[in-house]
């Protein structure tokens, strides 16, 4: 609570009274706290790969460069840390554009089943490498709708890449599209991977929130994938939910509303 006092004087008299204003600043305080945490998180997330890169470069400089095997391992770590930093900065830029509403939504008619087939194609190398099966199911009454294809591709890429990251070899991923009972398009990405503990579910869409930071980093994660997905879905007027059972798997479901006046466009 912020309290401000204003003295009241009547002409010719001394102090006549005081007005005290009590202002509830909980929301402002929370916002400020969230902003401070975000800046601290960004700094930490950038500092970690930079520290790693620095120490590997020093080791190379101290002689490791003369040993080809060691040198090539050190360089490859340096490169993958640099790539992760680029991903992080790119994700931050996307988020900041979405936050400031600078990133406009450019909608175009999109065939849903083609879009899902293409996501699977983009990950086909990783899927094959990890022997993960992907199954796509599109209900017959789902055809096409107006969306910002690039942005929804990013949502799908983030969700499918998570499904792959957090699922063991030979696992299975299901991508499905159907009409919800409110006549929205409902897309589900489901895996049978490691799952998420119940206690973490409420915070999972927060920026940088991760169940296991070390695991996420090792997998190349930035901790921003789900927050970006949520912002993009929100910008389309849809909603996103995540359901998970530890050790059983995770299901992320998002909706995209049909455009008004388009009737059967979906
Ligand atoms: P990250 O880059 O760490 O994957 P995300 O924002 O995409 O960041 O996800 C946040 C966290 O949610 C992840 O670190 C992981 O702990 C958890 N998570 C997301 N998707 C899944 C999934 N399909 N299975 C298990 N855990 C998941």
From TrEMBL:
It is found in: Cell membrane. Residues 41-260 form the Histidine kinase domain. Residues 1-37 form the PAC domain. It comes from the Bacteria. This is histidine kinase. The gene is walK.
